[in-house]
């Protein structure tokens, strides 16, 4: 039940880790996403050389990284992380029938009550019956023994019932509000709102906001028709990173069968990083899925493990599959890195296949003419490297106006590699089960 209910949120969150909104010369609130992207794409390319861009990009990226690193020291975030850890150490059953509940369950139910206090000595949650509130009392920090934090949640029920066991049902909430306190002082608030229609248990619209008393805030919202997702991470009202994405995907049909390519449609979006630069995303999800299916059918995985050329064939297969995946991506996914300050396009963002690792099979071929079909066999011996197998990754590159191509990760400090991961999440977000 919870898995299906959260599927829309998962799809939205995967999109929102992927794309965002840009301030254009006119008021962005008066423009839709397609218009914003169209205006950005028209911008001229920067005349700076790749070496000059590296210095400029690193300096601008470091501002965002500094703010994101500061957020890691937030006491509220540390407390929420510790609550998650404690729920993993000792599972609870807020539904009286479904165990292993996590924080997302706490914030996505209504009509469920109880006070749970952490017993550090026995490493368990002690439940006290309550008919008015759902509350957790626990240590704010890891390895702390005193319960000095609490998370209390209140909700308003919708008329949508979903089963959580063979005989019982619960109502989904239209709104949930939660307060985190540390040392009797409010440290954070959480608000969730959802709208439902036609008796369906996936919301037409949903929104989440987390506000921390030390200035950080995270907001995320989404609509099912037309599918839109927005999110923003701010500090004292100033943007750190903002996402805005849209899609023609048919969520109701994908919930029935997410393998149906025709319901995936197209997606686009923008990522705004502080006041420095923007990444434009335009993706034909249906086309990408079709091209990847064609690639799967065109390549035959080397399953004959007894063949003398098995490990060589496996390396060739890995190389061809990676190159085909990069080709399909570049055909169906268009991304551009843009400088907001200069009003110029820096480079196109593309994928290239690149050898990643070589692993040892610990197998060595032994000629044996008595084996008619193969003329030998593979002998496994962990003490030797044996035949080597090459594996490949699809790596993001910046392609400049002069056709120079440079790996994207070389333009940023090590900490900025997380952004590359979020790009990759975007490319695969509609392919996950």
Can you characterise this structure?
The chain is α+β, with helices and mostly antiparallel strands and 433 residues long. It is built from nine helices and 18 strands. The protein has a 16-stranded mixed β-sheet, sandwiched between helices. Strand 7 and strand 8 form a beta hairpin. Helix 7 (285-298) runs antiparallel to helix 8 (310-332). The radius of gyration is 26 Å and the shape is extended. The protein starts with a helix and ends in a 5-residue tail after the last helix. Mean pLDDT is 74; it is low at 1-29, 96-106, 249-264, 413-417 and 422-433.
Task: State the main characteristics.
single chain; alpha+beta; 9 helices; 18 strands; 28% helix; extended
Form type: extended
Main β-sheet: number of strands, strand sense, barrel status?
16 strands, mixed
How many beta-strand segments?
18
Total DSSP helices: 9
């Amino acid at each position: 039940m919870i898995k299906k209910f959260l599927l829309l949120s998962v799809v939205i969150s995967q999109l929102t880790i992927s794309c965002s909104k840009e301030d254009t010369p006119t008021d962005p609130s008066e423009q839709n996403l397609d218009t914003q992207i169209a205006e950005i794409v028209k911008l001229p390319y920067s005349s700076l050389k790749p070496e000059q861009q590296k210095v400029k990009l690193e300096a601008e990226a470091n501002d965002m990284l500094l703010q994101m690193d500061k957020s890691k020291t937030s006491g509220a975030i540390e407390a929420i992380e510790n609550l998650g850890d404690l729920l993993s150490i000792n599972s609870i059953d807020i539904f009286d029938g479904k165990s292993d509940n996590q924080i997302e369950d706490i914030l996505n139910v209504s009509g469920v009550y109880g006070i749970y206090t952490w017993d550090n000595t026995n490493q368990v949650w002690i439940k006290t019956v309550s008919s008015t509130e759902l509350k957790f009392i626990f240590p704010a920090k890891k390895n702390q023994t005193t319960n000095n934090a609490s998370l209390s949640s209140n909700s308003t029920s919708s008329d949508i019932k979903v089963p959580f066991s063979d005989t019982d049902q619960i109502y989904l909430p239209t709104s949930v509000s939660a307060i985190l306190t540390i040392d009797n002082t409010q440290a954070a608030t959480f608000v969730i709102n959802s709208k439902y229609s036609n008796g369906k248990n996936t919301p037409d619209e949903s929104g989440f906001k987390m506000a921390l008393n030390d200035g950080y805030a995270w907001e995320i919202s989404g609509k099912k028709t037309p599918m839109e997702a927005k999110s923003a991470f701010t500090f004292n009202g100033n943007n750190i990173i903002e996402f805005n994405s849209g899609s023609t995907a048919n969520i109701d049909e994908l919930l029935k069968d997410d393998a149906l390519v025709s319901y995936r449609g197209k997606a686009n979006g923008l990522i705004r990083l502080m006041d420095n630069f923007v990444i434009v995303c335009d993706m034909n999800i249906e086309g990408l899925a079709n091209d990847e299916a064609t690639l799967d059918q065109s390549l035959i995985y080397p399953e004959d493990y007894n063949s003398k050329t098995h490990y060589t064939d496996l390396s060739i297969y890995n190389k061809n599959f990676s190159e085909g995946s990069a080709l399909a991506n570049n055909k169906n996914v268009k991304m551009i890195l843009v400088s907001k300050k200069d009003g110029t396009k820096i480079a196109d963002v593309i994928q290239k296949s690149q050898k990643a690792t070589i692993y040892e099979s610990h197998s060595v071929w032994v000629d044996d003419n008595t084996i008619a079909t193969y003329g030998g066999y593979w002998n496994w011996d962990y003490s030797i490297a044996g035949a080597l197998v090459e594996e490949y990754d699809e790596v993001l590159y910046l392609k400049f106006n002069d056709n120079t191509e440079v790996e994207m990760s070389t333009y940023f400090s090590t900490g900025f590699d997380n952004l590359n991961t979020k790009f990759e999440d975007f490319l695969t977000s509609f392919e996950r089960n």
